[in-house]
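Changelog note: in this version the structure field was regenerated for every chain. One regenerated record is shown below for reference.
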Amino acid sequence: MKPTIAAFRPDDERLADAVALLDSLGADPVADPMLAVEPTGAVPRGDADYVILTSKTGVELAADAGWATDGATVCAIGDATAARLREADYPVDVVPEEFSSSGLVSALRGDVGGARVEVARSDHGSAVLLAGLDDAGAYVHETVLYELTRPDGSGKSAELAAAGELDAALFTSSLTVENFLDAAAERGVRDAAVAGLNDAVVGCIGDPTAATAEGEGIPVDVVPDEATFEALARAVVARLDR
């Protein structure tokens, strides 16, 4: 019998790719988008010494708006963001070994004192990045390129978890964890859904996501070394096979 695995990607090619991947791995995918992207129309500042992009979505919006680097040092959190920058013909100067806000702060700490640093991202970015850069002596400015909201109708995976019918869940950010729980509460099954996840295999991209889940009483079984959805999906399926 195929394992039932929930994916929470935004309802675009990312969700379609997630479903196709899970299907190819022999799973029964549950497509339950927990994030919707609402562009703000803002553009990264052009007078910064360093510009930080934290997601593929941010890169795409910046590129669509005609953003130019103007000689800034371009930093990306994660290989996926870096790859999308290169695809859009932008340079990539810094990618931290640890794909997280704290990892990027560590990579830049010794270089940004007195520098103007532009952080272009969603409205749910980690405060760790801004605080860490500020502590390093940078002049930090944040531009919100897009807002992340929970789509109407989300939460069918929460009902499956509450009924004990979900074998695994793939959380890609802290916000997907929070939105899953909000959707479960909206449907009146929050406690039961958390209990159901305790009996399922839970995978998270990154330690911050895992910490959010654990803080809500959801044990995390898998955090892949590579911070990509494909690595997450493969690791969770392998765990289920064991």
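Spot check on this record: Strands lie at 4-7, 28-31, 36-39, 50-53, 73-76, 116-122, 139-149, 168-171, 201-204. The CA atoms of residues 101 and 129 lie 5 Å apart.
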